[in-house]
Amino acid sequence: MKTLLIATALALAAAGALAQADEAMNKAGCLACHAKDKKLVGPSFKDIAARYKGQDVVARLMDKVRQGGSGSFGPIPMAPNPPDKINDADLKAAVEQILKS
Fold it and tell me: pLDDT tens for residues 69-93?
């Protein structure tokens, strides 16, 4: 019984973290150009996850989101996303969630 309660609490916490990351990405405007499983203006989250699978790139991708740029997935540039648009904790959670897609 105790194990079931712990497992339930962990599942609820994980679901809450996913919802927080989704909300932060929506608020920051990420979903205007990216989707989970299809290319919009930018690559899908699945394509991003596939490209960086098995690599420790959270910090690198956070920098890339902060600075913006182009060339990784095509010629269309991504605008910079400063901390006033998405804070560091939410950005880290979003990048981690994208890499698990």
Answer: 888 899 999 999 999 999 999 999 9
Question: What are the Cα distances from residue 85, in Å, to 12, 14, 88, 89, 96?
Answer: 27, 24, 10, 12, 18
Residue 33 assigned ligand-binding role: no
Residue type, 84: D
34 is in an annotated binding site: yes
Topology of the domain covering 2-99: Cytochrome Bc1 Complex; Chain D, domain 2 (1.10.760)
At 66, list the tokens. Answer: 């902060």
Structure tokens at 98: 């994208």
**Amino acid (1-letter code) at residue 59:** A
Residue 81, CA distances (Å) to 16, 54, 55, 93 in order: 23, 25, 23, 15
Write down the pTM of the prediction: 0.79
